[in-house]
């Protein structure tokens, strides 16, 4: 049996041994095993057998041969690789050829790499870009790469944007990443969110978690049309994007809703809110990160399947809806998450670490919550998880649709700050009354403000 140790030994003993070991193999698995375990190639390595393998009938063998040829760097024969590229049908092998040529860092390969920029496969274009970016501040390279900002593929555009345009467009944030404005800290404003946000500076909040009003499902959420409703939410989340710090998160809790039928001669209408809202968020600079499903016990939801249970006729199937969505977005940035995390001091990072028992998958089983005053509150447990997983201690958490104040209460309990807006006086007063009863926002001053008062302190 061929072992890794044996391959290593043969490789150092002399290259002819490896070449004959490969030619003695009759099964593809063994050839690949040898090629995958060759590791670094010694100085005196004779690669001839690798070039013969470029004609092997199995793509995986050709791929492994290209990978090993790539290790030869400037000593590898580019013409053989280009020959294979022209006749190759396997995209993985083609990508590896481009990567291999790029890794050579040879100025003489530039024109080949320029050619690959025309390929239809965006991954090949990205490999060629990678290979070209090593020629830093090279005018010719820049002239070929900059125009790719208009490339049809989004991955290509992102790489080019980061490389050539991000720095030019970078606005210097007024506040350090971890800090926010005093007038927003633990503040609840009784106003239309869009009015209140006019007084909120760019890049003020670290996390937004919210459950928007459901389309025409409750008395506080009446809109002239579904389109008007989506456009209203679009504006709210566009503004939220503006006030969100670079690379931070927005989590939106929604679910499809049903508007009951007008009469027996009509059908009820179902609106897929999370799916319809999604394109508006992405269009406005929110990068989609995750979908989390909030799963409720079946006994807690409205019975829809009852009719079907009686008649059992296909097409009339209507399952009970036991789920809601938590759609997770990040404010688009070319900075990695590590950049965000590095802004915090070690103590904050340590103290914000999520304890054992966290959710390991995207289906969270949580009982719904009911309240005597507000008919659509989300459970503290749901809020707790979101705040713990997506913010650090001391961060400002925003809820544009504050409701009964679950986000405020939970943020405070988790040593975060909060900023809420709520339009309805009855819910605003409800939050205030709970503050008085010392149960919602606990001891430390929460500011309950009218829009006018808020505008004044914002100045
Ligand atoms: C689904 S509830 C949020 C409940 C909240 N998550 C809680 O746990 O209590 C949506 C809230 O948004 C409020 N709202 C609707 N339109 C608003 C607007 N334009 N500005 C501010 N709040 C608004 C409603 O009054 C309602 O209380």
Give a topology summary.
Layout: H1 4-13, H2 15-23, H3 28-36, H4 48-53, H5 59-70, H6 78-87, H7 91-103, H8 110-116, H9 122-133, H10 139-145, H11 154-169, E1 187-190, H12 193-197, E2 205-210, H13 226-243, E3 244-254, E4 257-259, E5 269-271, H14 273-283, E6 286-295, H15 306-311, E7 323-331, H16 337-342, H17 346-352, E8 363-365, H18 380-390, E9 396-399, H19 406-413, E10 417-421, H20 425-436, E11 447-450, H21 451-458
Parallel strand pairs: 1-10, 1-11, 2-3, 2-9, 6-8, 9-10
Antiparallel strand pairs: 3-7, 4-5, 6-7
The structure holds S-adenosylmethionine.
What does this structure look like?
This protein has 21 helices and eleven strands. The protein folds into two domains: 4-169, Leucine-rich Repeat Variant (Alpha Horseshoe), CATH 1.25.10; 182-458, 3-Layer(aba) Sandwich (Rossmann fold). The mean pLDDT is 91. 44% of the residues lie in helices and 14% in strands. It has helices at residues 4-13, 15-23, 28-36, 48-53, 59-70, 78-87, 91-103, 110-116, 122-133, 139-145, 154-169, 193-197, 226-243, 273-283, 306-311, 337-342, 346-352, 380-390, 406-413, 425-436, 451-458; strands at 187-190, 205-210, 244-254, 257-259, 269-271, 286-295, 323-331, 363-365, 396-399, 417-421, 447-450. The strands form two sheets. A nine-stranded mixed β-sheet has the order 8-6-7-3-2-9-10-1-11. By secondary structure, it is an alpha/beta fold. α19 (406-413) links the parallel β9 and β10 (417-421). The protein binds S-adenosylmethionine. The site of S-adenosylmethionine has 19 residues, from loops.
């Amino acid at each position: 049996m061929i072992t890794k140790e044996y391959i290593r030994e043969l490789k150092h003993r002399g290259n002819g041994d490896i070449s004959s070991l490969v030619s003695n193999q009759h099964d593809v698995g063994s050839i690949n095993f040898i090629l995958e375990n060759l590791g670094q190639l010694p100085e005196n390595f004779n690669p001839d057998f690798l070039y013969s393998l470029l004609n092997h009938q199995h793509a995986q063998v050709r791929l492994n041969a290209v990978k090993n040829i790539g290790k030869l760097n400037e000593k590898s024969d580019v013409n053989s690789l280009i020959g294979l590229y022209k006749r190759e049908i396997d995209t993985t092998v083609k990508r590896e050829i481009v990567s291999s040529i790029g890794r050579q860092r040879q100025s003489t390969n530039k024109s080949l790499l320029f050619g690959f920029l025309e390929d239809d496969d965006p991954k090949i274009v990205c490999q060629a870009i990678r290979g070209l970016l090593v020629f830093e501040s090279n005018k010719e390279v820049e002239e070929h790469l900059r125009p790719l900002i208009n490339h049809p593929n989004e991955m290509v555009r992102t790489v080019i944007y980061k490389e050539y345009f991000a720095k030019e467009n970078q606005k210097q944030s007024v506040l350090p990443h971890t800090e926010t404005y005093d007038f927003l800290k633990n503040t609840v404003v009784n106003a239309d969110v869009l009015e209140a946000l006019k007084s909120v500076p760019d890049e003020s909040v670290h996390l937004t978690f919210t459950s928007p009003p459901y389309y025409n499902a409750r008395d506080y959420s009446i809109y002239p049309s579904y389109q008007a409703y989506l456009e209203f939410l679009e504006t709210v989340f566009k503004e939220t994007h503006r006030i969100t710090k670079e690379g931070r998160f927005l989590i939106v809790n929604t679910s499809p809703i049903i508007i009951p039928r007008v009469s027996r001669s009509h059908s009820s209408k179902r609106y897929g809110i999370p799916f319809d809202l999604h394109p508006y968020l992405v269009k406005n600079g929110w990068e989609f990160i995750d979908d989390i499903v909030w799963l409720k016990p079946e006994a807690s939801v409205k019975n829809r399947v009852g009719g079907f249970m009686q008649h059992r006729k296909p097409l009339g199937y209507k399952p009970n809806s036991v789920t809601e969505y938590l759609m997770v977005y990040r404010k688009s940035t070319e900075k990695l998450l590590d950049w965000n995390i590095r802004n915090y001091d070690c103590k904050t990072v340590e103290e914000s670490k999520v304890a054992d028992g966290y959710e390991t998958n995207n289906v969270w089983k949580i009982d719904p919550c009911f309240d005597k005053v507000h008919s659509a509150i989300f459970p503290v447990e749901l809020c707790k998880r979101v705040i713990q997983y997506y913010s650090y201690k001391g961060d400002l958490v925003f809820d544009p649709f504050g409701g009964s104040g679950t986000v405020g209460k939970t943020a405070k309990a988790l040593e975060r700050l909060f900023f809420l807006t709520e339009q309805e006086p009855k819910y605003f007063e409800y939050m205030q009354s709970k503050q008085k009863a010392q149960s919602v926002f606990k001891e430390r001053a929460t500011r309950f403000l009218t829009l006018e008062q808020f505008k004044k302190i914002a100045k």
